[in-house]
Amino acid sequence: MSPTFTPTTTDDEVATAFSNEIKGKNVLITGTSINGLGFQAAQTIAKYANLVIITGHSAERLKLAEDALKTAVPGANIRPLILNLASLDAVRKAATEVNAYPEHIDILINNAASSICGFHLTPDGFEQQLATAHLGPFLFTALIFPRVLAAHTSSFTPRVINVASGAHAWCEGINLAELARPKEDTYAGMRAYAQAKTANILMARELTRRAGGRVVGFSLTPGAVLTNFVQNEGARPELLAKGIILEDGSPNPNTPFPWKTLPQGAATILAAAFDPSLNDKPGAYLANSVENNAGVAPHASDAGTAEKLWTLSEQLVGVKFL
């Protein structure tokens, strides 16, 4: 019988249910700072996997995460990778390192994202949030795709997981013109975040379509979790205005959505990565550790928009992908 998951299911419960699926796998997770969802997922996956590759743009914070994981899971095979998704040159450098690994990549989890912030351009001239959460991961996925494809067998289909958010519904869709040419006078931090999360969902679905069964993509919302992402001081004005946090930075207990613990938030990441029942639901969006395509806003499920976003993303990062 398939396990039953609920909003309070934890990552340990999901990992226990799918331990056979995790065993022997090589998993790459972006954005694994301590007190984040990526770190939480990495810690649980490391108990069973063959290899867990963790990433961060700061060598110091990445070393802290690596040491903490090795302390929490003695004997775990942890490999750090410097990856700054806000710089296309840095993404290319990291991808070159991954492509030199002897191992294939069974599961790629695109988790890293910029905190909600004021208008800021990356060195490549893109808006910070959309660059870090979409364009950087798009390029990284494209460049290391041969290592992901190498995991495909007659009995196993590798997966690319995009950690999105229910907040994708807080915009009317992606403004493709502004993705290419950001405008400060029309910028709003929360809107940019919602657009980036919309892009995560569209990318997972379009990747699934284009890969033709060789690789499948899934996206998900982990729910509201008090991570270092939420606690970032730059995000404070937007989160206060939206009523998500209180003046002291604590979660607002009166939000229409329940707050989750880190283990509860990471549970959906693990379900997307390893639940074998999803083999029959390619491109699905998950919430509370189960498929929830009904939770996707119309602008994040439009096939035409997904194709246009993919084509534009190829042009902006300078790579043809699938």
Question: How would you explain this protein's 3D organization?
Answer:
By secondary structure, this protein is of the alpha/beta class. It has one domain: NAD(P)-binding Rossmann-like Domain (Rossmann fold, 3-Layer(aba) Sandwich), CATH 3.40.50.720. 42% of the residues lie in helices and 12% in strands. The protein contains twelve helices and ten strands. Strands 3-2-1-4-5-6-9-10 form an eight-stranded mixed beta sheet, with helices on both faces. Helix 6 links the parallel strand 4 (107-110) and strand 5 (159-163). Helix 1 (11-17) packs parallel to helix 11 (262-274). The protein is globular, with a radius of gyration of 18 Å. The mean pLDDT is 95.
What overall form do the CA principal axes indicate? globular
Mean pLDDT: 95
**CATH H-tier superfamily:** NAD(P)-binding Rossmann-like Domain
Total domains: 1
Under the CATH scheme, the architecture is: 3-Layer(aba) Sandwich
Distance between the termini: 36 Å
The level-1 CATH class: Alpha Beta
- The amount of helix comes to 40-55%
Please report the total strand number as a whole number: 10
Radius of gyration, in Å, reads: 18 Å
Strand content: 5-15%
What name does CATH use for the topology? Rossmann fold
Secondary structure class reads alpha/beta
Poorly predicted regions are: none
Strand arrangement across the biggest beta sheet:
3-2-1-4-5-6-9-10
Task: Summarize the entry for a quick read.
With 322 residues, the protein is α/β, with parallel strands linked by helices. Helices cover 42% and strands 12% of the residues. It has twelve helices and ten strands.
